[in-house]
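Late entry, evening session. Most of the bench is empty. Finally got around to the prediction I had been postponing all week. Sequence below, unchanged from the version circulated by S.P.
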Amino acid sequence: MADEAVARGAYRDRHGRGIRRPVLSNLYRHGETRQASFEQIVRSTCEFLQAAWPTELAELNWRVMEAPSLREDARTVRRWATKKAEMTIFIFRVPIERMGHHRRADPLQERMHIEEYVFAAVAHLLDKEPWELVPERYRPN
């Protein structure tokens, strides 16, 4: 009987429900923090846009910051900011992750949510609309 208990517990099947799932989702890989994942998405989006606009975005700089400074009379919280003279965008992680949206079910939706703000910030630098950054995506066939 003792051998049966050891064998049964070895694969962590409780009450016939199957093997337990990991506590963290696939969005967060082992050893990867939420901030590191966010920064990776911002970096890859900026690199994609630099490849699409090599001349205009050759000097693009980006920084991920926790949150913007708030004024007393502020009615909204900024998700991004730009410094056109320095070709720099600032993406504010906490407001993007926690405010103004319902919880997203999967990593793809989370990535698209973050990319939306990176596109908006870069478009502001170039005095364009975000959808203009990848015009071939929106051309009729």
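Two things to note before I forget:
The mean pLDDT is 81.
The chain has one domain: 32-134.
Will write this up properly tomorrow.
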